[in-house]
Write a structure and sequence with these properties.
Layout (H helix, E strand, L loop, with lengths): L6 E6 L4 H12 L3 E6 L5 H4 L5 E5 L8 H16 L3 E7 H10 L7 E5 L3 H14 L4 E5 L3 H11 L4 E5 L2 H8 L6 E5 L7 H10 L8 E5 L4 H8 L5 E4 L4 H11 L1
Parallel strand pairs: 1-2, 1-3, 3-4, 4-5, 6-7, 6-8, 8-9, 9-10
Amino acid sequence: MSGENKNIVIVMYKYSVIVKGIERKLVDSGFTVTILAEEFDKIGKMTADTTVFIVYLPNGIAEHRGDLAQLSQIYDTVQGSGRSLILVGEKNDRAPLMRENPLLEHCVWIDRPVKMDDLVLAAEEAVKAGGKKRILIVDDDPAYAKMAQEWIRGEYRTDFVTAGMNAITFLLKNPVDLILLDYEMPVVDGPQVLQMLRQEPVTQGIPVVFLTGVGTREGVERVMALKPDGYILKSTTKEKLLEYLREKL
């Protein structure tokens, strides 16, 4: 991991002795660690020099509107600057927290009591991901989306959503380098998503590649008439998908 930015900021809502133990373990593993206790206003200024932010969550956070709003603000700041966010919390808090803010599903979650080796591994993976291009997969079939994510995650930082409007919400807060967009989806389909992306200043420049199951000449012409940045058949192999993405990126 030489040459990589191994700066980590641990954010606490309230001071915790346990966090000092986490700090020692990370320092012993080669990271440079800064702790912010209730100093949320400093996070934005630290994103330029920090690769990973770890938030040590208070118990029952989903039940406290102020704490939840603060976490959403942290997410927007950290993810919006292309940095990684790791959440450390009680196992029982995870599900209600994700219901309150589904975007948090894209963060790494570590249960308490913390297994230090798992946290170090998550931090190392986050550092590695920080130097990769980021791709969003949009597909209403979660099985296909997860498969495609597994195929490419070794070379790219990947996220996926399973609905068109979820893609818009995600992209307005998270910078990506390319979008793999399912052409046929219920409610809001691929063409509608592409049109909305092209109308938003934040997203209009992101390359969009359609995923399509239709390989006929007429079907391909219909897809390309919308002027995406390309298309790829959903029946393609892992090797061909990776080769295609390398050319695009």
